[in-house]
Amino acid sequence: MTTRSARTALATVVFAVLLAQVLLYPGIDTLVTALGADTTLDASMWFLAAEFGAFVLFAGLWGAASDAAGRRVPFIVAGALAGAAGYALLAGLPQVLDIPFLAVLVLRTLQGAATIGAFSLSITMLMDLEGGHGRNMGAAGIAIGGGTALGAPLGGQLYEVSPFAPLVAASALLVVVGLLASRVTDRAPADDRGRFGAVRETIRETPAILVPCAFGFVDRLTAGFFALVGTLYFREVFELSPGSTGLMLALFFAPFALFQYPFGVLSDRIGRTVPVLVGSTLYGIVVIGVGLAPTVALAGAAMVAVGVIGALMAPATMALVTDLAADEQRGVAMAAFNAVGSLGFLAGVLVGGTVADQYGYVAAFLTVGGLEVAVATLAVPAFLKLGIPGIATRARES
């Protein structure tokens, strides 16, 4: 399989995994009620937190196991098929058995533990490809943005059919992921270290990786925030249906998908500093703008701005991981990045949900947007000290 064909296949895998994941978001309150929850905000928060808690715990294990074996494909296939089984059980068991919501959360955790393997290692395989780190991470970004862009409106329409329909669709998508991934040629470096303590060792040897990890944390924090608080905000404040909420989320995800690849290529030419630092600052400001918008139209316009700016910084941040990590540490480095990002998503769900519950939606938007701006401001000395502005040269040479 050629590099271009492999890039397309792997991007399709990433797309399908994200599509399956986001199908559940637009009517998350409807789903948790159908699964036996007594509340909507708290239950929705813990349902999302269970999956991303598993992402945090298992991303590093998948990456270390893959590096140890010197292979990616078998692990992606195993993660995808196990994740498909998890979604299927979530859809089927509550309809035939009277199980407590705590058991639902356990199933959700197991499904997340499997799914993160397929997602993280697919991106790692993109890192293994030649052709420019920004280009490869731009392909990953398009896949992520495309999956989320389509998942939001499609999930909203599936909820109109049944609260369990998104789960069934997600299960089917992950079966397709497993079949597609099995056809991709492994390009994992043959001299990977293969030690399960490699994440800590990688960070110790290359502390600069903590810089993109910090941005990955806060960027995914805002994603977790929108998955829970943003969804309920549109549902309650503007009284939107699950279908309309899905369309509102798509106003962010569509431009986020469309501009990932060209912005990724741009970061290969101009370096990572401007896309990451300036992009993150503007991103935090427009996130706050969504929460302050007095009408649906203005909120929608702000969501489009969030998507465009997010597309500017996301591929550059992922490419920065590739720039900084040694070839034999790519799997572990990307696993660390995804683990920290998943921790950020989890924090966005928990912090956003708690602040919204205690102080209201406006306070929640101010908190999350302010964190994004703060991280960008505090990271300026690190970019200068580590010489990150010169990475554009390395990217062109890759």
From TrEMBL:
Statement: the UniProt record of this protein carries the keyword Cell membrane: no
Domain Major facilitator superfamily (MFS) profile: 208-398
GO cellular component: plasma membrane
Alphabetical keyword list: Membrane, Transmembrane, Transmembrane helix
Kinase in keyword set: no
Stored Pfam families: MFS_1
GO MF annotation terms: transmembrane transporter activity
Highest taxon above the source species: Archaea
Transmembrane stretches, start-end: 43-63, 75-93, 99-126, 138-158, 164-185, 206-234, 246-266, 273-292, 298-321, 333-355, 361-384
PANTHER family found in the cross-reference section: TRANSPORTER MFS SUPERFAMILY (PTHR23521)
Descriptive protein name: MFS transporter
Origin species: Halorientalis pallida
